[in-house]
Design a protein that fits this description.
The protein has about 110 residues and is an all-alpha fold. It is built from four helices and no strands. α1 (about 1-25) packs antiparallel against α2 (about 30-50), α1 crosses α3 (about 55-80) and α3 packs antiparallel against α4 (about 85-105). It is a multi-pass membrane protein.
Amino acid sequence: MAWVYLLIAAAFEICWAIGLKYTQGFTKLWPSVLTVTAMAVSFAFLSLAVRTIPIGTGYVVWTGIGAVGTAVLGIILFGEPITVWRALFLLLIVGGVVGLKFTSTIPH
C-alpha cells in the first residue's frame, strides 16, 4: 500500500507544480487555493508512504515522478520545447526511479 500512497503523492506533486503556473505568483485566489491543497495532499501521502518505504527512496521516487510528469505536462499544456537531449534526460530520470523502486524491494 505504501507504493500506492507514493504514486498518489507524486500525482498531487505534479498537480501543485503545474498549479504554480496558474497562481501567477499566488495572486489568483482559486488556483492558489487548489495548489496549496494539492501540496498538502501530496505531503500527507508522502508521509504515509515513507512510514514503510526508506525515506531516500521515497523522496527520490516522489520528486522523480513529479519532475518528469511536470516536464511532460509543461510540454503539452504550455508548449515548452522538447529536444532530443531533454527527452533523453527525462528518460534517465525515469530509469533511476524504476531502478530505485526495484532495488528497494531486494532483501538485504
